[in-house]
Amino acid sequence: MDDTNEEGFMRITRVAIAGFGNVGRAVAAMLLSRRERYRSVYGADVRLVAACGSRAGASDEAGLEADRFDSLEPGKSGPDFIASSGADILIEAGPSNFRTGGPGLAYIRSALSAGRDAIVISKGALVYDGRALRDLAKTSGATLKISGATAAALPTIDLIEHSLLGCQVLQVEGILNATTNYLLDAMTMRGVGLDAALREAQASGLAEPDSRSDIEGWDTACKLLILANFGLGLDLSIENMSINGIETVTQVEIETWRAEGLVPKLVGSLTLQADGPSASVAVRTYPRTDPFALVSGKTKAIRITTDLMGEVFSIASGAGPAATAAAALKDFEHILLARSQCRSSPVAKTLPDYKPNALFIWRTGWRCRRRP
Questions:
Q1: How many structural domains does the chain have?
Q2: Residue 224: burial class (beta carbons within 10 Å; 0-12, 13-18, 19+)
Q3: For 134-182, what is each residue's pLDDT tens digit?
Q4: Which of 3, 55, 172, 306 could form a disulfide with 167 if both were Cys (CB 3.0 to 4.6 A apart)?
Q5: Distances (CA, A) of 253 to 94, 246, 262
């Protein structure tokens, strides 16, 4: 398949989205709205060549437009459908199941096996089979990006992989779930009960209709585990973690904490010790002078303690499908940047039959290769 557009000078980048609920549709709309940016900054003619949900989808080699999103065709779904679209980048945005990895796991495996870059938003596959996916990406030379699965708008994996490169991470603490932070804030500051606060959050669209994964701490645990395994090279499993949510918090506890000047937060904590890592999720209380106590409402935050840079604190208020889509497309731009750098590097020009406008290459470390 030719990798230059009709004018013969701009590289075509073909994208497919697997999972077309609220988040997948937000990704698609944002991707299309940024096409001119991709052309001007990266020299990339970005085309959304396929999108599918669990039962229906659509594809077009020339690129889908937004008017096709509400007329998906039954039966056009699954890893084979995505592979047949000719996409060279997969954005996986389906529902998450950390106990089985599905349904995203099959899409991600298919993409990485074929050397296609993958941007993963749902957490299930990364928790269930993260090590194998990392190994598969390394073997095939594909890029695997996961910002959308690690607290989305909150910079987490980027801090570890880039900003703190060379430092030894000693501890990670994170308020990683916007729903539970909102609920605890409502319970503490306004005296609202958990059930009433949850109804508020659901009415505003912040909380899912079934919010047990959030309230019981599983969502926070999954994000922390992915950070530990992908960011720090550990090999933790859910079974290695102590997980407690906010469902057992009582009004008596709330009143006691308020009287003592303490603020409760659901925190995922990872401590790296000489005898091994320790990971847990639990409600912890902080004095009002602690930065975590100031993280209110739907805001999320992370604090990373290092050997040389001390404590690094990051906070973000973005939540919902738009924020998650923005995190995934940040990963997308990193891939575009790497490809554009590789195309212009002296290494690429030494490849046999190098054609700067037609050769499809990508970056693995600083190595440039042709697509198999």
A1: 2
A2: buried
A3: 999 999 999 999 999 998 889 999 999 999 999 999 999 999 999 999 9
A4: 306
A5: 37, 11, 11
- pLDDT band at residue 345 under the 50/70/90 scheme: low
- Cβ neighbours, 10 Å, residue 135: 12
Is pLDDT of 37 > 80?
Answer: yes
Question: Is residue 366 one of the residues assigned to a domain?
Answer: yes
The domain in which residue 181 lies consists of: 157-317
Distance CA 125, CA 121 (A): 10
Is 2 within the bounds of a domain? no
Q: What is the pLDDT of residues 316-339, one digit of tens each?
A: 988 789 999 999 999 999 999 998
Answering whether pTM is above 0.85, one says: yes
276: left (phi over 0), alpha (psi -120 to 50) or beta: left
Looking at the fold, whether 129 and 77 belong to one and the same domain comes out as: yes
Residue 24 lies in a domain: yes
**Scanning the structure block, which residue is given the tokens 């992370």?**
302
One domain for residues 148 and 74: yes
**How far apart, in Å, do the first and last CA atoms of the chain sit?**
12
The domain that holds 42 is classified in CATH as 3.40.50.720
- Residue pair 229/130 in contact (Cβ under 8 Å)? The answer is yes
Q: For the stretch 248-282, what's the b/e string if a residue is b when 16 or more beta carbons lie within 10 angstroms of its beta carbon?
A: ebeeebbeebeeeebbbbbbbbbebeeeebebbbb
Tokens 């779904």 identify what position?
77
**Does the CA dihedral 67-119-368-366 come out positive or negative?**
positive
Q: Does an H or E element contain 335, and which?
A: helix 321-343
CA distance linking residue 61 with residue 371, whole number of Å: 19
